[in-house]
Specification:
Elements: H1 7-11, H2 24-36, E1 42-45, H3 52-64, E2 72-76, H4 83-94, E3 105-110, H5 117-129, E4 134-140, H6 148-151, E5 155-158, H7 164-177, E6 181-182, H8 184-194, H9 198-211, E7 214-215, H10 217-224, H11 229-240, H12 244-258, H13 262-273, H14 280-298, H15 303-320
Parallel strand pairs: 1-4, 1-5, 2-3, 3-4, 6-7
């Protein structure tokens, strides 16, 4: 989990391979590399908040023990994405020998899919020239944005979002240690909202705990600025029932009450379409309209006008059924 301003993110960061959740096969293979003290260049690819940075830190701590800070360089490539970073910071660190028994240092480049192509070409040469002294762990949300010569020099591990039982395990652990009472419906809401992102889960939990020690579904939705699925479905059912004005007013109330942006509403509507009592053809038409409306919003169109347009499409589909 990437470092941020959350104290909980640091407090509950894994310190051992056994604490890494949801990536058993990856952890097993990486653990074997660490035991042999023979680490290849690694590329961690996957969505945010699933343990890429945490695993890199555990690798460093297990390899170098108390000397891990002197032998581990962490850079965020989205902040420093130019060729000068590779030529200066990375190369200066890579060319010096490691301190201790392990024959190499580790450079961890987070969000390296943000590096320019020129910087990636410079990184490729640095990886070639300093392999004896240094190993690279690259982290990216989208591995396709990493040039092929770098990918071919790395062992690629693809991380996946955490599953429901793992998210629930984390919620129970934090709830117990922070003395929180968390309702079952609140756990379900946390899982749905976090979408397998542990960092987002911890931030929502921390924000909710600052308000109350008893976390209910309403508190979680309010903190996360997400409408309840039931409320979104009510809006859609009103529109399908040709009650357009009521649907429009209820949607406006939802957006104001939860502070929702248009893009957030579209994503929730898209999920709820699948739960509606409609035939598959109608669902396909409405999901296609969602994609069209989302594109228009990202291009700068007025959010509420576009959402009204989408509700009108629901009304037309309701009339045709």
């Amino acid at each position: 989990m990437q470092p941020n301003n959350s104290l909980w993110t640091e407090k509950y960061r894994p310190t051992d391979f056994s604490e890494i959740k949801g990536q058993k096969e990856i952890v097993k293979r990486v653990h074997a590399f660490v035991e042999q003290q023979n680490l290849p260049h690694l590329l961690f690819a996957g969505p945010a908040g699933v343990g890429k940075t945490s695993l890199a830190l555990v690798i460093a701590k297990k390899l170098f023990k108390d000397l891990w800070r002197q032998n581990f360089l962490e850079l965020n490539a989205s902040d420093e994405r130019g060729i000068d970073v590779i030529r200066n910071k990375v190369k200066d660190f890579a060319r010096t020998r490691a301190i201790g028994d392990v024959p190499f240092k580790i450079i961890y480049l987070d969000e390296c899919d943000a590096l320019t192509r020129e910087a990636q070409q410079a990184l490729r040469r640095t990886m070639e020239n300093y392999t004896q002294n240094c190993r690279f762990i690259l982290s990216a949300n989208y591995s396709s944005k990493i040039i092929e010569p770098i990918q071919s020099r790395c062992v690629v591990f693809r991380f996946k979002p955490l599953e429901k039982k793992e998210i629930f395990g984390i919620i129970d652990k934090i709830g117990e240690e922070e003395r929180l009472k968390i309702d079952e419906k609140a756990k379900e809401a946390l899982y749905e909202i976090s979408e397998g992102d542990c960092r987002r889960l911890e931030n929502i939990l921390q924000s909710s705990a600052a308000i109350t020690s008893h976390l209910a579904e309403d508190v979680v939705h309010s903190i996360a600025s997400v409408a309840k699925p039931k409320e979104v479905r009510e809006v859609l059912e009103l529109a399908l029932g040709n009650r357009f004005i009521e649907a429009r007013n209820k949607l406006l109330d939802l957006m104001l009450n939860y502070g929702l942006a248009g893009i957030d509403v579209i994503k929730q509507i898209q999920k709820e379409i699948l739960e509606l009592n409609l035939d598959n053809k109608s669902k396909m038409i409405l999901i296609d309209k969602c994609g069209d409306i989302e594109f228009r919003m990202t291009e700068g169109s007025d959010e509420f006008v576009q959402l009204e347009s989408l509700l009108s499409q629901f009304a037309l589909v309701g009339n045709s059924n």
